[in-house]
Amino acid sequence: MRKSLLAVVLVAAAASARAADLPRLGAGVVLGVPFGVTAKYWLDPKYAVQSHLGVSDGDFTMSADFLKNFDEVLPRKIPGSRMPVYLGLGLKVKSERSAFFGIRFVGGVSMFHSKKPIEFFMEVAPVLRVSPSVDGALDGAVGVRVYFL
Fold it and tell me: In the 3-class helix/strand/coil scheme, how is the chain assigned residue by residue?
């Protein structure tokens, strides 16, 4: 029993040390809906949270998403690079005449530079508007983030 517990602790420590070597927080610009700034924080190698702040149709827009990344979906054409596909669920707030509140269903693809902590991404997010009325919208954007922490 002690050996099993020790093995689990050692594997967890090795995994966290490996994850600690990779930058976890990135910030950059996003172009599309919205036009503004973006940030992403990796919780572990498969899960991340991202947020976009910006302007869309002249109104302030903010979104926050929880993402699951699928690393092995697309083939790696460039040695050492990563190109995960991601899916997620999030929230969106937009300041129109009355505040717009919606649920985002996010899908996208990222490409990480093989030697530098840079991520290029593109995503599409259908939005279910739930307040002040039920309606639909579509967000789409491309962007770049630089990882530093």
Answer: CHHHHHHHHHHHHHHHHHHHHCCCEEEEEEEECCEEEEEEEECCCCEEEEEEEEEECCEEEEEEEEEEEECCCCCCCCCCCECCEEEEEEEEEEECCCEEEEEEEEEEEEEECCCCCEEEEEEEEEEEEEECCCEEEEEEEEEEEEECC
Provide block-wise average pLDDT over 10 residues at a time, the chain (149 residues). 37 41 90 97 97 95 97 80 94 90 97 90 97 94 96
Rounded Cα distance, 107 and 50, in Å: 12
Q: Which pair of structure tokens corresponds to residue 14?
A: 């090795």
Joined tokens for residue 9: 């602790």
Residue ranges of domains in the chain, CATH in brackets: 23-147 (2.40.160.20)
